[in-house]
Task: structure prediction
Amino acid sequence: MRLIASPILRNVVTIQLSRSRRLQPKVHEGRLNAEGFRFAIVASRWNEFITGRLVEGALDALERLGVNEGSVSIYRVPGAFEIPLLAKRLAQSRRFDAIICVGTIIRGQTPHFDYIANEVARGISQAGLESGVPVVFGIVTADTVDQAIDRAGVKLGNKGFEAGMTAVELANLYKQAFES
Ligand code: INI
Result:
């Protein structure tokens, strides 16, 4: 069987190849170096046995990436629903280069799961958009306690660690992009 590329497809390929030869785009990517940056972790107390591991994961990432002693503050709130407002106020205070939000919302524990999870996600996103400071989503949402445990360091990585890494990358990226 002979394969005949359509004229449209041939054009696409030609354009992509010539673009990659001509253009030398300047790529901006944040480095993974936490030295000199300040971070706040906003953590809820619900499901502490899981959220505690997310906090540990975030601290581990910051420490591995060289954060300075005294440059990390942890703020605790009762539930995940309370995270967005505090994250927004901390971001607006300009005392931190990034805010890391961690918490655990489990479907089986509340008929309000969808409301809480949606509002928390929307609020965290809004905190970043309204303050202009990176606010990172490190919230575990899961159907069961077992699933949540898996995302806090057992099987599927640690969402707090992931959020810590993201915060460092974004702190660097924003500094490179807007302060140099
Ligand atoms: N808060 C959580 O962080 N996780 C949950 O799973 C949860 N459940 O299941 O209800 C939860 N509820 C409390 C909520 O976040 C607020 O603290 C509360 O509604 C007071 O505003």
